[in-house]
Amino acid sequence: MSSESAPAVPGSARELTIERRAGTFTSPPGEAFGPVLERSFGFMKSSLYRWGLVVVAFLVALYALTPTILDWSDGALDGKPASTDGVASMFLEVDPTTEQITWTNVQPLTLGLDLQGGLLLQYHVYVDRAVQDQLTRMAGGIEERLREVQPDVQVEATHPDGETYIDVTLGQADDRKLFTEEFMSNFPSLTRSDTGSTTLRLQMDPNYIEETKEMAITQAIEKIRLRIDALGVAEPSVTRQGLSDIVIQLPGIREENIERAKDLIGQTAQLRFQMVDDSGTNQFFGQFRGQLPAGFALRSIDGGYFSVTHQDKEALQEFFAGRVADDRAIGYQFHPVYQDREKKVLDEEQSYWKTYLVYREAELTGEYIQDARVAVDQQFNRPYVSLTFFPEGAKIFAETTTEYTGQRFAIMMDDEVNSAPVINEPITGGRAQITLGSMQSYTEVQQEAQNLVIVLRHGALPAPIERQFETIVGPTLGQDSIDSSMRALLVGSILVILFMLIYYRRSGVISTIALTLNLVLIMAGLASLGATLTLPGIAGIILTVGMAVDANVIIYERIREELVVNQKPVRVAVKEGFDKAFSAVLDANITTGIAALVLLQYGTGPIRGFAITLLIGIVSTLFTAVYVTRILFDDWMQRTKSEKLSI
Question: CB–CB of 241/223 below 8 Å?
Fold first, then answer.
C-alpha cells in the first residue's frame, strides 16, 4: 500500500489516493485517513468470516472422511482398519469376545458389488401361485361368511388347481338367495354365474388377477429387502427385472454369510402348524418295508413312530409323489450327524432327512403371529423362538391344543418340519415356543433361531420363488475395476488441470484449488450419507469434475469480456464477471440436478448410485466453483499491488 497527499492549499481539499492491485481508489475531499483504514479492516474482517465457512466445511469433510481413511489404511475398504487404537478408537467399538468391529456415528465409505465383489442372485417369482393362494383363501371365506348368515347351510367352495374361478356347491337350490348383492360386496373381485340348480361359479376379475401378480412381485421385493437388512449388508440392491424376476446384489458380503443369505432369501416362510397323523403314521410308512429303493431306509423316530429316510430330500419328494392321500402331506426334517461338532464338519454319509405324515390342512398359520423373538431356556440353557399370537390366533391355538392334547404338533416352514413336539397340555395364554434341533451346538441353534425370527417378523413371501442363477464376484475383479476407474479419474483430472493452468495461467491455480476441495467434499458427502461408491458413481464424480471446470470457464470468460471488451478495472471486472456468470452456472446445475432427481426416483441399483453422486457433486460444485473461487480472487487482489490479472 502506498499513499501520496496533495499539498494543502488554502481553500482546497486534502486528497488521499490509495493504489491497489484491483485499481485506484480516491478518498472524497475532506475525508480523513482513518475511515479508509476502517474500511480496509472491515474487508479483512468480512474475508475472515467467509474463509471461516470454508475452513469449517473442510474440517467437517475431513471428519466425515476419517473412518474411510482409517479403513483404507490396510489398502482395502472392507470395514476392517489396520489398527483399532489411537484415532480409530474414536470411531469404532470392538467386541472383546467376538472381536467384531462396529463403526459408530460416521461410517466408512463402502464400495459397490462392481468394485469390492460380493453375491449376485436372480430369482423367479411364481406369481400364478399367489393367485391360486388368494382363491383358496376366498373359498374358505365364502364358506365362513355363508355359515355366519345361515349356520345350518350346507356349502362347499372349491377351485380347481390352475383355474381362476371358485365352484360353490349348495345343499339346496333355495340357498342361492344367500348370494345377495350385499354378500357379494365382500368379494368385489368375483363375478357370479349360475351353472346349475345348486351350483354357482365365481370368476375372478382379470384386472384383479394382474393386480395380485403385481402385488406379489412388489411384496416379495420388500420382504426380501427386509430380510437382507437384518443381515447387516451395506447398501444391498433388490430390483425387479422383467415381468416376474428379482435381481439381488449383496456387495461385500462375507464368505461365511453367503449360504445364510441364500437360505434367508429363498424361504417362502409359510409358517404352518399342522397335526401329525399319529394314528396312521406307522401303517403308512410301514407299507414300504422291504420295498424301498437303494439309499432309502425305514427308521423308528420320536419314541417308536416309523419314518422313511434318505440323504437327499429331493429323492424323498420324488418317492412320495402320488403316494399320499389328498388330505395328507409329507413333512421333511434334516437330521445332522457331525464328524467334528466344534468345527461344524458334517458326516454326509450318516446325516439324513426324515419324514412325517401330517394333515394337509393347517390348524394355524403365521398370519396370526404378532411377535417372534429369540429366548433362552434357563433350565437347559438352549435358545428357542418365543411366539406371541394375535387374539384370534391365541383362541385358535388354545382350541387346537385342547382338542389334540397328547398328540404331535408339527411346526412347519414350507414343507420342512422345524419341530414336532407333543402337546402335553392345553396352551391358552396366547404364547408358544419353537424348540430347535437338539443335535446342534448352542451357536448353531442360536443362529437358526435368529434366522427364523427374521423370517417370521418380516412375513412370508406372497408366492414361491426359485433361484435361477447366482454369481460370486471376486475381489480381484473388483480391484481391477477400482484401478481402472482411479486411473480414469486421475488422468481426466490431470488433463483438466493442465488445460486450466495453460489457458488461464494463475487463475487456473485458483480453479485447481477449488477443484481439489470439490473432490474432498464429494467423497465426504458420500460417506456421510452412507452411500455406496460404484463404477457409475465414479463416472458421476468424473462428470462433476467437468461441470466444476465448466463453471469456472464460464466465470473466467465473463471476466475476460469485462476486462477486454468493456475495459473495466480488474476489481470491477471480477465482480461483474462473477455476478453475470452466476445465473448461467446456476441454470446449468439446476437442469442437471432435475435430471439426477428423476434418475434417483425411478432408477435402480447403479443408476441410483450415479444420481446420488451427481446430486452431491452439484451442491459441492456451486460451493467451490462460485463461493470458494470468489474468495480466492478477492483475497488475491487484496494482497497484491499489480493492476493486471493473470487470466
Answer: no
Mean pLDDT score, 109-114: 76
Tell me the C-alpha distance between 523 and 106, whole Å.
13
Answer yes or no: are the C-beta atoms of 200 and 215 closer than 8 Å.
no
Residues 285 and 434 in one domain: yes
Q: pTM for this one?
A: 0.53
- Report the pLDDT value the prediction gives residue 383, as an integer from 0 to 100: 86
Residue 194 has pLDDT above 60, yes or no: yes
- R_g (Cα) of the chain, nearest Å: 37
CA distances from 601 to 588, 594, 604, 608 (A): 20, 11, 8, 8
Residues 76 and 133 in one domain: no
Domain that holds residue 491: 476-639
pLDDT tens, position by position, 406-456? 999 898 877 888 778 888 888 887 887 777 665 567 777 787 777 777 666
Question: Quick one: 22 exposed, middle or buried, by C-beta within 10 A (0-12, 13-18, 19+)?
Answer: buried
Answer yes or no: do 53 and 144 share one domain: no
509: exposed, middle or buried (C-beta count within 10 Å: 0-12, 13-18, 19+)?
middle
Q: Using the predicted structure, report yes or no on whether residue 529 has a pLDDT greater than 90.
A: no
Q: Please report, as a single letter, which amino acid is at residue 541.
A: I
Total number of domains in the chain: 5
